[in-house]
Specification:
Elements: H1 3-11, E1 13-21, E2 24-31, H2 52-93, H3 100-134, H4 138-160
Antiparallel strand pairs: 1-2
Length: about 160
């Protein structure tokens, strides 16, 4: 190889896709002929030796995001399951002998189930806003609080009317 070819080979860029986990892939640009294509042992991204602390911070933020997503999923799941159970119970009560108490119970169960279905997304918004605030994402927390405030104003206005 002649000198100009060696210089070009040493300055060539190679695009590599690395993955710490099958669900997380990222592109890394490797420049220079002497760069290693294997990630360092401390978990740092390729080409950034000693960046283990930054990788740990990113991992911690990912874990917190996953925990937040689980809380939001729990709120939605519990709301849907309890509401559905209330509807099914009201249908089961229809098979009972009809009386005033049974009609009142059916009515209360159906109204409660419908109300719970309406309140569940609002509870999800409150949980998401709180979790975003805990993560330091103030703009999104303020947006969630604004939407909750607008909902409160709309409900308050509707009740007074």
């Amino acid at each position: 190889m002649s000198e100009p070819e060696e210089a070009r080979a040493a300055c060539a860029s190679v695009s590599v896709v690395t993955a710490e986990h099958p669900a997380v892939a990222r592109n890394v640009a490797v420049t220079g002929g002497a760069a290693s294509l294997t990630p360092p042992m401390d978990g740092a991204p390729m080409g950034q030796p000693g960046a283990g602390a930054a990788a740990q911070v990113r991992h911690h933020h990912r874990e917190r995001a996953v925990v937040g997503d689980r809380w939001i999923a729990r709120v939605l799941r519990v709301g849907a399951v309890v509401s559905g159970g209330m509807f099914v119970l009201s249908l089961g009560l229809e098979a009972m002998p009809q009386s005033e108490r049974v009609h009142v119970a059916i009515d209360l169960l159906r109204k409660g189930a419908a109300s719970l279905l309406l309140v569940t997304p609002v509870a999800r918004l409150a949980v998401a806003g709180t979790l975003l605030g805990l993560r330091g994402e103030w703009r999104y927390m303020a947006m969630a609080a604004g939407v909750l405030g607008l909902l409160a104003i709309a409900v308050g206005t509707g009740i007074q009317a």
